[in-house]
Write a structure and sequence with these properties.
Length: 100
């Protein structure tokens, strides 16, 4: 699935993740996971950025998609998953069945 393209995207996005809003971060993680392109450096940087942003504007779908993306590429991110769990637990009524 166009590895050269995803490598170029990873190289460009990683140093600029501080500019990403929650939805943009979710979309990026989802795109890389859907393409089965794990990019460890990018995923580690996204985990750090998402851990900071989770309390802000992440929707239920954004939380679910981010967790799915990391799981799909097999990238461990314990601090991120802890933050997702802490944010999602009191908001369970916001999740659609497919997001659980």
């Amino acid at each position: 699935a166009a590895p050269a393209l995803f490598d170029a995207l990873s190289n460009e996005a990683t140093p600029r993740l501080a500019e990403f809003k929650p939805q943009e971060l979710c979309n990026l993680a989802w795109a890389f996971a859907t393409a089965d392109h794990p990019s460890p450096i990018l995923f580690d940087a996204m985990a750090a950025r998402a851990t900071i942003l989770i309390g802000e504007l992440f929707t239920a779908q954004g939380l679910a998609n981010t967790a799915w993306a990391f799981a799909a590429v097999g990238r461990p991110a314990p601090a991120l998953f802890d933050r997702i769990a802490a944010e999602a637990t009191p908001r369970m009524d916001e999740f659609k069945p497919q997001e659980l």
